[in-house]
Design a protein that fits this description.
This protein is of the alpha/beta class. The chain is 41% helix and 20% strand. The protein has helices at 32-36, 43-64, 84-101, 110-116, 167-177, 185-192, 217-229, 237-265, 281-289, 302-305, 310-321; strands spanning 2-7, 12-19, 22-30, 74-80, 105-109, 120-121, 126-127, 135-140, 145-152, 155-161, 270-274, 296-299. The structure holds 5'-O-[(R)-(carboxyoxy)(hydroxy)phosphoryl]adenosine and zinc ion.
Length: 340
């Protein structure tokens, strides 16, 4: 079965072709630089860019996969959540292709796709569902921080999420205060590596609370007060690195403590991590080196952490394989779709 998948929920235009669990192509055109000027994603600009980029990206994905539109068995797209005008581009394009070819259209929940992206592995990247284990999945991105119990392939339920800012949002907002370009997560990650004495005074919000929720806005506020009282930090690279490492350590420690505690409570021995923040080197190091003996920790590859259509295609294929009905050709976008 050959599936073309489209992802246009935020600021990446992506198209992928998957066949029998293998990612044949995955083309991503990022708008990050365009939005950097505004310090965040501008929805109207994002939609216009998707319209401009959709055809070249889809053509490239088909060419890389050495296939053509006529060969497709199904078409999938991210149906939500996301920016309404951005989602419309991918969903309507996918539905039009499906309509023309008389093939099924599958609308995919963006976070559900992130949940299964750690199972895309190998060379060529193939979905490793043969090794699937029930797991505790952490999705950490610019817009979301979610802890999900994944009981089986396609069966999951959300345990907790952030009650204010997402982890990536915290990286980005702190970065803005530090004068770093948007999105600041990767830059904080880089600067933190040079820290000689990471600041350890930043709070670890909700770390001891007996729930699976997160909160990062207090951490952001504490950095704001710290910078107000120590403005010289901004003029000194060594100090800047110490602040970056301090903030990063606080975020990573909260994510680790709450994720591992939830996994232990549920008797799970497998933890998976995905979303843009899962590219963070400290997060990867701590999660993979500090877990209890006998546990498996699986990170999505970096290219499948940030938004990509491959994960949309792999999940769409799983759904069809498990007999889940395709979506109507006139299914609406679901900008506020929450994962259950
Ligand atoms: O999943 P993603 O591409 O987009 C969505 O938000 O859906 O995630 C982007 C987020 C941004 O907040 C960015 O700063 C963060 O991921 N990010 C990182 C790193 N790479 C990307 N945060 C920390 N360390 C990184 N290395
Ligand atoms: Zn995402």
């Amino acid at each position: 079965m050959i599936i073309l998948a489209l992802e246009t929920s935020c600021d990446e235009t992506s198209a992928a072709v998957v066949r029998d669990g293998i990612v044949l192509s995955n083309v991503v055109s990022s708008q990050t630089r365009l939005h950097a000027e505004y310090g965040g994603v501008v929805p109207e600009l994002a939609a216009r860019e998707h319209l401009k980029n959709f055809l070249p990206v889809a053509r490239q994905a088909l060419a890389d996969a050495n296939t053509s539109v006529a060969a497709l068995d199904a078409v999938a797209a991210t149906q939500g959540p996301g920016l309404p005008t951005a989602l419309l581009v991918g969903v309507k394009a996918a539905q039009a292709i499906a309509f023309t070819l008389q093939r099924p259209f599958i609308g995919i929940h963006h976070h559900e796709a992130h949940l299964y992206s750690p199972w895309i592995t190998g060379d060529p990247p193939a979905a490793d569902f043969a090794r699937f284990e029930p797991n505790l999945s952490l999705i950490v991105s610019g817009g979301h921080t979610l802890l999900v119990h994944v009981e089986s392939e396609l069966k999951h339920h959300v345990l907790g999420s952030t009650i204010d800012d997402a982890a990536g949002e915290c990286f980005d907002k702190v970065g803005k205060m530090l004068g770093l370009p948007y999105p600041a997560g990767p830059e904080i990650d880089r600067l933190a590596r040079d820290a000689r004495r990471p600041y350890d005074r930043f709070p670890r919000p909700l770390i001891h609370e007996p729930n699976d929720d997160f909160s990062f806005s207090g951490l952001k506020t504490s950095v704001r007060y710290f910078l107000r009282d120590h403005p010289q930090v901004l003029e000194d690279r060594a100090e800047l690195c110490n602040v970056c490492a301090g903030v990063q350590n606080a975020i990573v420690e909260v994510l680790r403590a709450k994720t591992f505690r939830a996994a232990e409570r549920l008797g799970l021995r497998c933890v998976t991590v995905s979303g843009g923040v899962a590219c963070n080197s400290r997060l990867r190091q701590v999660f993979t080196s500090e877990h209890p003996r006998g546990w498996t920790v699986r990170f999505a590859e970096n290219r499948f952490c940030t938004d990509n259509a491959a994960m949309i295609g792999i999940l769409a294929e799983q759904k069809l394989k498990h007999g889940i009905s395709p979506s109507p050709l006139d299914a609406e976008i679901q900008p506020g779709w929450t994962l259950a």
